[in-house]
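Reopening this ticket.

The earlier resolution said the output was attached, but the attachment link was broken on my side. Pasting everything inline this time so it's all in one place.
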Amino acid sequence: MSFSPKARFVGRKAVTAGLAMALTLGTCIPVAHADTASDLAAASQRLESLGAELSSLEGDLENKTADLELTSYEIGQKQNEIDQTQSRLDQKRAELGEQVKSNYISGPVNWLSVLLGSTSFDDLSNRIYYADKVSQSQSDAINEVKSLGDQLSTQKGELESKQAEQQSAVDEMESQVAVYQSKVADAQAWYSSLDAQVQQELAAQAAAQSAEGTPSNADAALNAVTDTSAPSNANNADNGSNSASSNATNDDDNGSDNGSHAQNNNSNNSNNDSHSNNSSNTAHGGASGGGLGTAYSMIGVPYKWGGTSADGVDCSGLVCHCYGFARGRTTYDMIDSLKASGDWKTSVDQLQAGDLVFPHSGHVGIYIGNNQMIHAPSPGRTVCITTLYGFYGGGTY
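Inline output:
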């Protein structure tokens, strides 16, 4: 389970504050505590450095995701062109076949009969002209078929090249995601072990002083550490990691006010409490038959490029899982469909809960009201609620 740099930063500062309080209470902390405090300081520096690296990597991954979806869309468009060319090729082949069949039945042009059958010079000229036109038409049909065949082969080659490039990009992305997840796991494990060690040592000291019958300043220090590090512990206890995912998205994607942490959590909770009422009024039937209600149930599901199920989804895959495939598979398909059907909306004020919303042309979420959406952010992240960080357009599914 991953946590936002903001959540980890709050946890680190809380533990550091607790240790500072313990030091100022006049308790003589053993050398082991000092060593742990030094380790915590090193961990703090490491986490801050790692947070910057992860933020940069996450941005790269999101860009690659958008590029991959665009490539997928372009490949789909190219396939449509190839299908149309194939249809024309089949038609020309049929026409050529009919001409060959006609020539086989009637035989080739007999120039002697054309000459002897002419009633006048003008008639002879006309006969020669039309006979030549038939031959030219046959030649043109053959050349056109050949040209279309060459064009089709070229288009297939372009499509195969794009597919190879896309696969390479996917492989690179998977490698980056693995590095990202490994760094997050290592950093979280390191920080958690140090945090637990500090609390255990302070608890042991408090127990020893209590056994001696003396007032324990370590109790106050332990309480300070436990209380002030509650945000980190609360995140660790959150099985769905929804708040952590949502905060990570807000911090990294939209650059909103850093003080909105509590507001976002409260908004998420109120949305979760009331979503059943909203879904009964605004949800549209989809692949899972739930629409907006299904979107809420998907919170916490991992991002998976190309995924459309509860095992993992990408941004447009989340929409398909909740609503179906009536408006296409990619964000670009959905935008084209909304514009074609007259359902495209150009202002956030026009959106209703359950509508699709596009922060930019390469990303889509499901609008839930109050300038928020449910979306699948990027590789290494999970489906979450976030504040809109941009607006390209939207519309009713």
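Reporter confirms the inline version is readable. The two ends are 32 Å apart (CA to CA). The chain is about 70% helix and 5% strand.
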